Amino acid sequence: MRSKLTPVILFVAVLLLVAFPFVGEKFYIQLIAKVMIMAIFAMSLDLLVGYTGLVSLGHAAFFGLAGYVLAKAAPQYAAANFWTTLPLALGACAVFALFTGFLVLRTSGIYFIMVTLAFSQMLFFVFHDTPFGGGSDGIYIYAKPEIKIGETALLDLEDFKVLYWFTLGLMTLVYLFLHRVLDSNFGRALIGIKTNEHRLRALGFPTFRYKLASYMLSGTLAGLAGYLAALQFGFVNPEILSWHISGSVLMMVILGGMGSLHGAALGAFVFILLQEMLSNQSWFGPVAKHWQLAMGVFIIAVALLLPHGLVGLGSTLKNRRKRAGGHG
Amino acid sequence: MDFAFVLIQLLNGLQYGLLLFLVASGLTLVFGIMGIVNLAHGSFYMIGAYLAWSLAGMLDSFAAAILLGVPLTVVLGMGLERLLFQHLYHRDHLYQVLLTYGLILVFEELRSVIWGDDVHGVAVPALLSGSIPLTDNLSYPIYRLVISGFCLLLAAALYWLIQKTRLGMMIRAGSSNREMVQALGINIKMLYTLVFALGVALAAFAGMIAAPVSSVYPNMGAQVLIICFVVVVIGGIGSVWGALLASILIGMTDTFGKVLLPEYAGMSTYLLMVLVLLWRPEGLFKRG
Q: Which pTM does this prediction carry?
């Protein structure tokens, strides 16, 4: 799946993304920024699903938690401090992952799917029902966090183009970081756990600790995405913790191709742009209201026909042709 | 808190728990026997409720709506199994999650196209609309007792089906060793279709009888589905009796949680799950 051309294609893709704000309209620049945030989210989940073999249906918990930490930590009408709120949000996610990890990692397979879902639902109700959480109406974040050193502002995130490049930079960093992690001995051990955990344990690897580390890293990076999302929208409500978000991000990973970082990012791009296209009223008129129908059919088709996602499309087609040829 | 009040809450908890059992039993059976994670199971509950509402309106009789609605959902279940689910038996859980997640979107949108997005009330059948007085100012609606009664009846029927009949023997055998069952000449494909349709019909029936109490509203399936996941996890995946015990536990926890600590009631069921998992990571009734 990974050819020599891949780094070149990725490099060109990043260059195109860097250039986009010079030509695109504001609406599309903001849309692509949102897509890139979701790409970070999808890559974080891919570490868990595609590389460690743990299918989580509760990843929105981290995404939403980080958003809520920003909303809670920010002063009501003034700008929050980026240097304190970001570590706070990421730290909260890491701690939440540590605690829940001890429980959810005792289970595996389908139990893991259900238990992660249940934990994210629990968090959903914490923010939905308790007075602390702000209820179903959510909380506004009126001003974007400030990035300053001393008294000089480094970046003005209120400017949507700056926010776009900032997100692009972080997405690229997350990609390079995960790439590095997966190339290390730690990453190889994770892939080993996915393939055969018993064998790895027999070889003397403390697999539980490896899985916990992967789970925490994945949750923390999902928190980064959640922080950026809350920052961009200027608003959090319990919906960002809902299992629809968890389902969507899982969908992005599978659509793009599990076990491939750029696949997960590609999945986020295709998924959100498709969603945006199908719900576009000027293209599909009154049918656009029921865009989820087309989305659902599309998801079912991917589940049945594309076992390796979009990045594996080439090899899937090749195999199919080979099989057809073998019969003929 | 006096006795009548506690009694009412106990009966409510029991009724809610038993209703959850109808939905969860199908979920756990389909997983235990066929190894399928079905996120769309809650949609069958929703479909049942909407069928009850629209058929009761057309036929002017709630009983007739149920009698006509249940066979319809059995046909739906068989059709879905043949068309979609049978392609997923050998696939990773991940793809099952994906396909059934897609199905939820399809069902929700079809519901919106066919029945609209409004909340509808369903009238309690006149015959059952009375209530039993408990004290001077507290009484208990008969219909809720009827729901509990029906659920208990179905639970007993399920017990008889699984433990005492030939079909039940095949179901039990199929859940412990698929290949062996096939080698003995039992048509496992047919068995799967039947079990799946049974699960669908149970969930839809639960939706139908719950409709007069809970009313009929969009996304009602998702709520039930997630609670049923908790039930299945607590009970132990594949165990019908675990599901029964866990349903009633959850029903009671939720009902009393809402009375005693309303702000934390939403979390109480999940907390219960956490405690059970700390004690037994594979649920109460994990089979060997």
A: 0.87
